[in-house]
Each structure stands twice: as structure tokens, then as C-alpha cells.
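hey so u asked for the seq, here:
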Amino acid sequence: VQLVESGGGFVQPGGSLRLSCAASGFTFSSYAMKWFRQAPGKGRELVAAISYAGDTTNYPDSVKGRFTISRDNAKNTVYLQMNSLEPEDTAVYYCYSRIYFNDYWGQGTQVTVSS
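ran it, C-alpha cells below
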């Protein structure tokens, strides 16, 4: 199982970024996917989740209305569209899935929001 994130970077407040997570080594279309983030000195926080079919999504209040998770099962890829970014969104963002009772994480991609 491999999860590889991309798309992070530096953006000014109010800007947008789209993260991608390319998955391999398992039947991607059979598993829910999640995005987490971890800011310096803080614990890992769930920011978005999507069902295996892509028909159900969930977000915490901190990002609801600004972040959108989606997936393309033909491309084995999950996305996180982030709009109206705030300095508080600065963190390393991780792709995650639980497969056969095991937790799998990507290596993370840094998102920095600053003026």
C-alpha cells in the first residue's frame, strides 16, 4: 500500500490550493479515504473524509464550507480542494486509509498560509 500526497505549498490568506493523494497497492474504490493535518506542536486533526463510492463526505466545523474532498476511483486518487485559506490552516497534510484493519498514511505535504 502506498499513498503519495502532492500539491502543497505557500499561499497567501484567502488563497486556494488543491492537494492530491495517489493510491496504489490496494483496491482503492473499496475503501474510504481521509485527509488529516498536523500543525507544529499540535496533534493530528481530521479535516475531511469520503466514502468509498464518493457519495458521502464529512468535515469538521473548522473547515466546513471551505474545504472539499473528492475522489476519482478510475485514477486511484483522492483530492482536497482548499479555499479561503487562513494562517490557522498551516500544517502538514496527510492522506489516510484503514485497510484490512491496518492504518496507512502518506508522507505528508506542507501547506503554509502566510502574508
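The chain is about 0% helix and 55% strand. Residues 92 and 110 are 4 Å apart (CA to CA).
lmk if thats what u needed
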